[in-house]
Amino acid sequence: MTGFDFNYLIQVLPVILRALPVTLSIACLAMMFGLIIGLIVTFLRRSRYHLITRFFDLYVSFFRGTPLMVQLFIFFFGLPQLIPIFSTITSYPAAVVVLSINASAYISEVMKSSINAIDKGQFEAALSIGMSNAQTMERIILPQAFKVALLPLGNTFISLIQGTAITFMIGLKDIMGVAKVSSAASYRFFEAFLAVGLIYWMITLFFTKVLSLLSDKLSKGGII
Amino acid sequence: MISLRNVQKNFDDLEVLKGIDLHVKKGEIISIIGSSGSGKSTLLRVINGLEDAKNGEMTFNNQIYNLQTINEKDKRQIRKRIAMVFQNYNLFKHKTALENVIEGLLVDGVKKQEAITIGVDLLKRVGLSDKLNSYPSQLSGGQQQRVGIARAMALKPDVILFDEPTSALDPELVSEVQQVIRQLAQDSMTLMIVTHDMDFAYEISDKMIFMRNGVIEVNLQPAEIKSSKNEYLRNFLGDKLKAYSEES
Fold it and tell me: Do residues B161 and B47 make contact, with C-beta atoms less than 8 angstroms apart?
């Protein structure tokens, strides 16, 4: 079992790829929920009540300041000890929940700075024609902030895809999980992990391309 | 139309407005002059509710507002009737010229088709019929400011406030914007214009207000301005004053 077995690499690729829907669906769901939660957190952090602002600053600080794996373990292995009902949660929803919350912290940080990047004059102009604060946010500020945020949010998504790799530690059969099992069965560790690495790389290249096309398209209007 | 009583405003320890009393009649064109930091822009922003006042009262369309306690809802009502044109145009960057103009109408509940008809007409009036679908970044400063004026006109306000409308423009673009403001003046719109352009203020105004250190020093008709004995105003006008006296 020494040396490099190219044939095994070719063989194991389709096996691992079969688990791709698990990886991508977790990443997409987490991105979607992360955006929703992240936006809500961003607004709460802009609240005029200091207690709320503080609390959600802390939220962001904790989830950015601790490893994703630690968060996953606290949620999946730790919480059932305190709240027994949590032990019924299976690994897939657990992974989605933890990744969503983790992503929301990063997304909130991106959105906060993107909103801050919008010229104060845009707020004032919107107010001056009779818009409410909420309308100003929805119609004027957020559309511009999302354009500023597009690339950083894309990076968050790419980190999220790669972050799914650790979900095999709670028993999930994502591409990393399958690679791990295949490698253990064949003792071809190098080939199996190289194969899964290549797959992550290709996914990342794909989404990087999609993002750059998207940002070209958005800048056509000469907006940012 | 607008009456201000004892309007005071602080930025931290700095008193920017020290008890402003002012009365603006319907159809009147008032220009506010004075050096930077005299409080003239702040005065406009307080009227439009973009700055909160520390004290004071505003009467507008027979409604009395306490500027210290005024709520967001009243501010919104006022803003729909008192429009604002900004020094840096502040056009919505992600919207076309036409969308910029009709945005306030749409928010106010006007049907889209109707809003577009109004918007197209307004942009025609400011001479931008060929720029309906241009984004702000594709327009010159003068064109952007004309869109800004059309946007301010869209809600058919009672008053339009101009905060140094031509200060950010290249000299050759100033006249196209001033022409649009002249047009508004001829249509008997009520206007308050903060400006550094003395000649324009002199030409267009019914009244000129000279502010200094948060106080209205002088409130006179243009013709009386040159003969004013106010020392600060004479200093501020400087060479202009000589030019005026040579003219007359």
Answer: yes
Q: How many domains does chain A have?
A: 1
Q: Which of B93, B107, B152 sits opposite A144 (nearest CB)?
A: B93
Give the domain range for residue A22. Answer: 6-219
Q: Which residues from chain B sit within 8 angstroms of residue A137, using beta carbons?
A: none
Query: Distances from the Cα of B113 to the Cαs of A129, A214, B118, in angstroms?
Result: 19, 30, 9
- pLDDT tens, position by position, A1-19: 578 889 999 999 999 999 9
Question: Is pLDDT above 50 for A224?
Answer: no
Q: Report how far apart the first and last C-alpha atoms of chain B are (Å, whole number).
A: 33
Number of structural domains, chain B? 1
Q: Provide the terminal-to-terminal Cα distance of chain A, rounded to the nearest Å.
A: 56
Q: What is the CATH number of the domain that holds A26?
A: 1.10.3720.10
C-alpha to C-alpha distance for B24 and B60, rounded to whole angstroms: 10
Q: Is A130's CB within 8 Å of B107's CB?
A: yes
Kindly report, residue by residue over A105-152, the tens digit of the pLDDT. 999 999 999 999 999 999 999 999 999 999 999 999 999 999 999 999
The alpha-helical segments, DSSP class H, found in B82-192 are 97-107, 112-125, 141-153, 171-186
Taking an 8 Å cut-off on Cβ atoms, the answer to whether B151 and A129 are in contact is yes
CATH of the domain at B234: 3.40.50.300
ipTM of the complex: 0.90
State pLDDT tens for residues B73-126.
999 999 999 999 999 999 999 999 999 999 999 999 999 999 999 999 999 999
Residue A224 lies in a domain: no
